UniProtKB/TrEMBL annotation:
InterPro entries: Rv2632c-like (IPR015057), Rv2632c-like_sf (IPR038070). SUPFAM superfamilies: Rv2632c-like. It comes from the Bacteria. Gene3D superfamilies: Rv1738. This is DUF1876 domain-containing protein.
Length: 90
């Protein structure tokens, strides 16, 4: 059995009613996948910072997931010579 470790770094920036997150995933061969996410708080909403953090991070991680799936599809197509039509996360 082999164990591999990939690292994700997430940076969250808050400004007024906007929260931005950037997620960076380092892959097995030092590949870098980056995703960005933003959350906006309506003026009428309560100021609950962790909700904006969680939403922005979820969106950033979703971006990383899409980038990684795109990379996997491209590699499968290169190795098999066939088009990949659908890859799903989960």
């Amino acid at each position: 059995m082999r164990t591999k470790k990939w690292n994700v770094e997430i940076v969250i920036t808050e400004s007024d009613r906007t929260t931005q997150a950037e997620a960076r995933l380092r892959g097995q061969n030092a590949e870098l996948y980056v995703g960005e996410g933003t959350a906006h708080r309506n003026r009428a909403d309560q100021d609950i910072p962790h909700i904006g953090d969680e939403l922005a991070v979820a969106r950033a991680l979703n971006g990383v997931s899409h980038s990684l799936l795109h990379e996997v599809a491209a590699e499968i197509e290169t190795r098999t010579g066939e088009s990949v039509h659908r890859l799903r996360a989960g």
